[in-house]
Amino acid sequence: MAAEEAAPMGLDAVDRQLLRLVQKDARLSAERLAEAVELSASAVQRRLQALRRGGVIVGEVAVVNPRRVGRPLTMLVEIQIERERPELLGALRRWLSNEEAVQQAWYTTGEADFMLVVTAASVEGFDAFMERLLADNRNVRKFKTGVALQVTKRSLFVPVDPD
Fold this sequence. Notes:
The protein is an alpha+beta fold. The protein is built from 5 helices and 4 strands; from the N terminus they run H-H-H-E-H-E-E-H-E. The protein has helices at 13-24, 30-37, 41-53, 86-98, 123-136, and strands at residues 73-81, 102-107, 114-120, 140-147.
């Protein structure tokens, strides 16, 4: 079973509070987290390790401002495919997963089969990306692109309600 399909892990109030805190700032020390949840630093470290092993925490990353690294464009791309044969879907999923410009890729219901968030340095760079996508994935029937004019919110925060 894939991590995203796994059953929810039994979380107590402290686990939930830790998750809220580390989602906002993964750089918080065990000592600072311990103060916030009223446990020892070693107990906090054990709990965080258990959350990682249990697949609740799946990664800890730096959030980079795309404009500051020369990728000011964000495109929202809807993709329709010809056929939903498993081998064709698998090939497209692997291609999207390996493409660094794709920040997020969602297999969806509705008119679009996939929704993508793509970052680009320029319109020409995005065009080259789309040419590669179409050349490498003959199963793509059509696509529609929207340009993000302004970022109102960018987050992967998952609300973790108290017990």
